[in-house]
Design goal:
The complex is a heterodimer. By secondary structure, chain A is of the alpha/beta class. Helix content of chain A is 44%, strand content 10%. In chain A, helix 4 packs across helix 5. The relative contact order of chain A is 0.14. Chain B is 57% helix and 0% strand. In chain B, helix 8 packs antiparallel against helix 9 and helix 8 packs across helix 11. Chain B has 2 domains: 94 residues, Alpha-helical ferredoxin (Fumarate Reductase Iron-sulfur Protein, Chain B, domain 2, Orthogonal Bundle); 72 residues, no CATH class. The longest helix of chain B has 17 residues. The chains are: A alpha/beta, B mainly alpha. Chains A and B meet through helix 3, helix 4, helix 9 and helix 10 of A and helix 6, helix 7, helix 8, helix 9 and helix 10 of B. The complex binds iron/sulfur cluster (2 copies).
């Protein structure tokens, strides 16, 4: 993608559609501000993430494939969830490498496979926007908020995909451009525990609290993550003594736009970020952009 | 330490795992970078690189019975550390699926129960319905009370939707399950 299209297909995935709605709406509202519209892939299904490919690789491929076949041709697909991005990307790579599989799925879905469908991670889009100077007028907006950038395992990939871009540093760069202060800390790419948070909570708790403590000790006022699963795990497995507000990347981006952030997003957080937002004079308006609430 | 006897089944096991995981185990030189990077290696009964060794030595039962294959979350951190591009997450996927198919002893039944609850939800809605997954998981584990405060808090914050987000074309999801074979 060289130019930034005004219209993209969009694959939200299960987390953004449900538990992380605030991530979904803040992402859309942020892009909307720059006249980028997203149209959800009609009737999309689960990407085949962790649990599915843990127990049935073929099913994981089939689920991901259905989404690839449903996506309208000639339109890039934006994906914000790192897990979904990996699963759909892996499926595309697998299908592109095998004519046999392509034909099999073409028959099954009764439509042609589009091997040129472009899957775009939100990071890629953001890097492009930043390169084009989209954020020039927003300098200083985050009022020196001290941010621990947290990638978790989102940038790790299987060896067959290791030639792709990493985008390490993107959160730091964007946050600094917008007037935040990204801090240096040791746990930026340390895994949150993912699904073990449910079946092995003790293990997840150990990892999460190490991360949270690390952020506090490094002087961060908050953590920002671009993965909805990390966001949830850090919030639910964090011990009371180690609490620090955790933002979705898209929420902080929106906070840098005039009156584009909504209080409703932050009300859905289990660790209340509002006192910090007040202290930093980053109070969002009441209900998205319709309200008359003030921003800063 | 127990001695290791290699027999011809060792190579068979290697072949099976390599075929399922599309990887080449002989690329591994046992440098331990993967195990050093794996966030869960302290909780596993066998280190990830040792799993590869076990496969090469034909220690099928031990590998399939290990907790390692269930505690691996497929985060790919190890792959970023590995100097030889070994796809550890895919190897773990392969072993897990072999363990299920061969009715091996499952070292972490709770993890499998969770995966099954997720897949079950996808079979019904085409998407994951977190509240139902949690309820089913809790019932299957006969553990209704841990995390109850957390569940209530999540409900009050509307983090857990009461109703699922659903795919309209239910049949197309069922047909995917049919073509891919039911699980466990
Ligand atoms: S890092 Fe790679 S080469 Fe080293 S032990 Fe692990 S799998 Fe083998
Ligand atoms: S993919 Fe599995 S073995 Fe590798 S680092 Fe992650 S949990 Fe450990």
């Amino acid at each position: 993608m060289n130019d930034i299209p005004n219209q993209l297909s969009y694959f939200p995935g299960c987390s953004l559609a449900t538990t992380a709605k605030e991530n979904n709406t803040s992402l859309k509202s942020f892009l909307n501000h720059f006249d980028i519209d997203l149209s959800e892939i009609e009737d999309w299904n689960c990407c085949g993430s962790s649990s599915t490919h843990s127990v049935n690789s073929k099913l994981a491929l089939s689920l991901a494939a259905r989404n690839l076949f449903l996506a309208p041709p000639n339109q890039q697909v934006l994906i914000a969830c790192p897990g979904c991005f990996l699963r759909l990307g892996y499926a595309k790579m697998t299908l592109n490498a095998s004519n046999e599989k392509q034909t099999q799925y073409e028959k099954h879905f009764d439509r042609p496979y589009n091997k040129n469908l472009e899957l775009v991670h939100f990071f890629e889009l953001l890097a492009k926007m930043s390169g084009k100077g989209f954020f020039k007028n927003l300098t200083g907006r985050l009022n020196g908020l001290k941010i621990a950038p947290y990638y978790g395992c989102m940038l790790a990939r299987p060896p067959s995909m290791n030639k792709e871009k990493n985008h390490y540093g993107l959160i730091e760069n964007t946050m600094a451009t917008l007037g935040g202060e990204p801090i240096r800390w040791p746990f930026l790419s340390s895994c949150c525990g993912t699904f073990l948070s449910v079946s092995k909570p003790k293990i997840a708790e150990k990892l999460v609290n190490r991360i949270m403590k690390g952020a506090i000790q490094s002087g961060a006022e908050c953590i920002v993550t671009a993965c909805a699963m990390c966001h949830l795990n850090l919030e639910i497995r964090c011990k009371p003594g180690n609490r620090l507000p955790i933002f979705h990347f898209s929420e902080l981006l929106s906070l840098a736009l005039d009156k584009k952030a909504s209080k409703d997003w932050f009300k859905r957080h289990l660790i209340n970020p509002e006192p910090l937002l007040e202290k930093k004079q980053l109070i969002p308006c009441q209900n998205g952009r319709k309200s008359n609430g003030f921003f800063r | 330490m127990n001695g290791i006897t290699l027999d011809k089944t060792a190579q068979e096991f290697v072949n099976q795992v390599e075929e399922l995981s599309h990887s080449n185990l002989s690329q591994c030189w046992h440098c331990l970078c993967c195990s050093g990077g794996c966030p869960f290696s302290k909780d596993m009964d066998v280190l990830p690189n040792s799993i590869i060794r076990m496969i090469q030595f034909g220690m099928k039962e031990q590998a399939l019975n290990s907790s390692t294959i269930w505690l691996c979350v497929g985060c790919n951190t190890c792959s970023m550390e590995c100097p030889n591009a070994v796809d550890m997450a895919a190897i773990m996927d392969a072993l897990r699926q072999m363990a299920i198919r061969k009715n091996a002893k499952i070292a972490e039944p709770g993890v499998l129960a969770f995966h099954n609850a997720v897949v079950d939800s996808i079979s019904r809605y085409g998407r994951t319905h977190k509240l139902e997954i949690m309820m089913r998981y809790k019932f299957s584990e006969k553990d209704l009370f841990s995390d109850i405060d957390l569940g209530l808090k999540m409900l009050s914050k509307r983090k857990l939707d009461l109703l699922p987000s659903k795919v309209k074309d239910k049949k197309s999801i069922q047909s995917l399950f049919k073509m891919s074979g039911e699980v466990s």
